[in-house]
Every structure is written in C-alpha cells, then in structure tokens.
Amino acid sequence: MRQSLTWIALFVASANAAQVTFRVVAPGASAVEVNIGGQLTPLTAADPTIPYFTGVAEAADGAKYKYVAGGTAEAFDRTLEAGKASTYNEFINRPITYANIPELPWPIENKPQWTRSGAKQPLFDTNYIPTVFIDGNPSDLNALITSPHKSKYPVTLTWVLANEVRTFKNVSFGIHGAGKKKNNAKQSWNWRLASGETYQNRDFFKLRHMEEDPTQIREKLWADASRAMGTFANEANMIRMFINGDGYGTFNLLDDITEYSYPSAMFYDGKPPAQMGALFDGASGASFQYFPDTLGYYSWVKNSASPEEIVAIGPLCEAWNKTVKTDDAQIAEFGKQFDTDMFLRFMVMEYLTGHWDGYWEMQTNDGVYRDPTDNNRWYYLGQDYDATFGVNIPSEDPLYIEWSYKQLETANPNAVMIAGLLQNPTQRATFEKYLVDTVKVLFNNVTLTNRVLKYHEFLLPDLEWDRSITQRSPGINFGWTFNQVTENLWAGVSSPLGTGGGAEFGLIEWISRKSEAVIKEFAITISPTPVGPPSTATQPPVPSGTSIETGTPPAPTDKPVPESAAGHVSPKGLATVALVGASLVALLF
C-alpha cells in the first residue's frame, strides 16, 4: 500500500512536469547551473560580456530549485510558480525577484492621475530591480572613473528587466555633473541612446548615486508619492549597475526634467509633436518674478534644442505680476497660460517632505515646459528630490519639521508664484484641501510608513552589496555602514568617517512628525490601516508572459526569504493533480 502511494506521488509529479526556461544574472560567474531537486542542469550565457545565463530543464509546478555559481549553491530554495514556462530574470543570491510592494492611494479627487504619459513602463516597476551592464573601451572608462571628467564615451548598454533583456549600441555614456568640487566618490551617471532610438519612450537616462541618503529610498519615494497625487513628476526606480563586469552599486534611475526625453515621455507617451516647446532649467533665482528689462531671467537656462530663448518666459512672469491675486476670474485667466493646479500639488509635496532646495524655499531646482499642443501653456517642472525627508536641512530651528505651511509662506516672499496663489482664498482652500486629503490617506505614519518598510525589506540584500563596494573615483565618502541603512529609517545618523552628511532625521521619523503636525493643525483623522488606490485602479503592468499572485509580503526575518512570486498552485493545476490521482487510486484499489 505504502509503495503504491509513493508510486502515485511520483507519477503525479511526473505528469505535472514541463520544460521550463531558467534565467539568472550571475556577475563574476563563468559556470552556472540550476539545481532542481538534486538534479543539476547547466545554464549558458549567449554573450560573454553579459553574465546572463539561461537553460531549459524539466520541472513541476511548485518545484524547489536553486542556482549554483562556480560550484557554490544559493543558501535558500526558490519555488517555481505554477503554470510558468520560464522564470523571471532572477539575480543570484537575491531571494526576492519580484516583490509585492503596496500601491499608494490617490488622495486628490480632481484629476486623480496624470494620464498623458500612458501606462507605467516596466522599467519603473517598483516590484523589480533592473540591472544595467555597461561595456566599453577599458582605457576610456578607467580614465573616466579614476579621473572624472565631462567627456562622453560610446558603450554597449544592456538592460535586464523582469522578463526582458535589451541591448543598445553606440550609447553615449558619462558622469552626470562631472567636475563639481563636492561630488561623491560614488558618482552619478547618465547616458543618451543613439540618434533615433528610444527605450520605453525615453532616449536619456540619469542615475543618482543616493549617497546623501543612507536609506537610498527618499528620492524614489518622493517621485512615487507625487505621482500618486496625480502629478507628472519624474519616474524613478532602484537599479544595479555594472561597468565592464565590475559592480558599482545601486542607483536611483530617474527622468532628467531638463532633457526633452522627459516631456516626450510624460506629456506625449513617447509620441511628441515634430516641434516640441520651450524647455528651461531653473537655477538659483528662477522664481517667476517679473523683470521689465528681461536681464533678470538669467536664472532660467534653456535646453540647447529649445525653439525659444529664455526671454520667452518674460510674458508669463509679466502676466503673473499684473494678475490681481484675490480675483478668481483673473486667476482662472492666468491658469490658461500656466497650470496652477499641478503647481499647487508640487508645493504640497515640497512642504510635506521639507524640500528646502526647491522652488518654495530657494527658488531653484525647478523648470518649465511650454506645451505647443495645449495652446502653448506653461507647466512647472520639479527636480532633485534627494535632499528631502530631513536630509541636509539648513534651518537652525529645531522645530522646522513641525512648521505650518503658513510659516513657510511667511519666510519665503520671493517665491512669488506660490505666495501669490495663497493670497487668493479659493486657491488657498484648494492647497489646504490637497494637503489635508494627502495626509489623511497617503502621507502619514500608517500608509507611507508601511510602503517604506516593505520597500526597505525588498532592497536590503542589494543595499548590503552596495555598502560593500569600494568606489574607485575620488570624492566625498560619508562611509555609511550597512547597519545605518536601517538605522536611518528611525533616527538621524552621522558619518562614521566624520566627513559630513546631513541625515539628521530618520525617514520614518520625518514622515511621522511632519504628518502629526499637519494632523494637529487641521484636526485630521487618518485611517488606522494602510490605504491603497481605488479598486478600479490599474496596477503597474506585469512583465509580459508572466502572472503575479498578490498577497502579504513576508515579515522581516534574519533567514533567507523564499521567492515571493512563487509557490502558488493554480486551480487548474490542482484539478489536474486531483483527476490523475483519483484515476490511479481507482485503478489500483
């Protein structure tokens, strides 16, 4: 009887087995295998410069497997998801390939989401960490790294996404902001695809090193929360980067709002008009203040491809200067020239996150785009959100974190756009409604903190790798330790090397104290449980040819976490097992 049942189990497993393609990125490995129940199958790399290994093996739904690189097996088991003909593009020794990060709610009822950019691109899917490989002339790239300079070099660039591998040649690659005195040893980077080529609606990409932020979460969190508020803020995502086989760590991939790649993706879904509008970067003093002689507009810097010079912003500033701020009709008329509603949303986020190096407090790190498809209307563009959530706060007031927005208003009269709008009772009411509604459901110690903790857990293995890398460029090194990656969620941390760094607040500490200040000021009641988007909301697209099961991510643990997107048996699979098992039992007994 016992032997018969064993034979049944083996038969059922065999009947449920199928040919599955296994795919894994294994940097530094020359030989990689997949171990399925003790059976080893070799995997191969089609390109010797890219450590991306694939191979086909027979495996049943729910089969346990692990990758073996150079004879060393992973310390944990993975579980094959039911019904899958291939795995995701996995990464060696990373237990979670595709996560289940909680989606943020949509707090603003009026135009709750920006739709002109189309569907969210897989490149910015929070649930997956893409890997990018740069392959170029070793002499050129070594010189660039060890002695940073502004030159760009042609490279071959390969993206590895959850279910896609894409290679581009003749990519112009270099350091972003090379030559600045206060650059970090871990440089920021950018690249531009060859003329006529785009990837996911973009041709220009920027990587920020995130060295100012020990958690490496803040800037992406700013982008995600702002987009949940219905803005066209830049997209962002964590990625890994390798240059000629060497790992350079984790970076925040983001749109650069000063490049036409950004409005092309964000305003036109990658299908821009033949002639795009004026695009200006806002440096220190870019306040929208009116200057009759036009010389005062030097703080605006045009993109080299802009069809208009910076004086084009003069009529907008003049119109704002002449607008009677308390007159709703005049504000509405000005709104035909400049999108004031989106601007207010950005200002709510600047206030909540303490974006001291932005428009409201410094009149810098902004920009504008003039949309020729929308009656030449101007749109405010925000950028550089790495110094947020308590990083590098210049204010000497220890209670700055608890300031009312009204204190920010009083302290910054030169921010003439937001100062003027707040003079209008209707616009002030709109600003306060957006602020209150955002804190009620999104920016609070329940919903936003929940997302931070789940995302932090997902990133930890990669952040541990990042903290182990010795960067080869000269520059500032704060020396943040791996332990401080977690410590700075809860409290401020100091550079172990005594080299500065401004992480004086914990990320969650900032969220908690700032939201509590707003809750107290406006007598807000927030949800006791995390809030998500409307049930009718569309989630980020699942990678092509795969399916994702939703569920609660695993709790933090010191032990390796099994593959989060696996381990589920489909109803069809259960039905097949039941049918085969029942038939065999009927035959045997």
From TrEMBL:
<feature type="signal peptide">
    <location>
        <begin position="1"/>
        <end position="17"/>
    </location>
</feature>
<keyword id="KW-0732">Signal</keyword>
<protein>
    <submittedName>
        <fullName>Uncharacterized protein</fullName>
    </submittedName>
</protein>
<dbReference type="InterPro" id="IPR013783">
    <property type="entry name" value="Ig-like_fold"/>
</dbReference>
<feature type="region of interest" description="Disordered">
    <location>
        <begin position="529"/>
        <end position="568"/>
    </location>
</feature>
<dbReference type="InterPro" id="IPR014867">
    <property type="entry name" value="Spore_coat_CotH_CotH2/3/7"/>
</dbReference>
<dbReference type="Pfam" id="PF08757">
    <property type="entry name" value="CotH"/>
</dbReference>
<dbReference type="InterPro" id="IPR014756">
    <property type="entry name" value="Ig_E-set"/>
</dbReference>
<feature type="compositionally biased region" description="Polar residues">
    <location>
        <begin position="535"/>
        <end position="550"/>
    </location>
</feature>
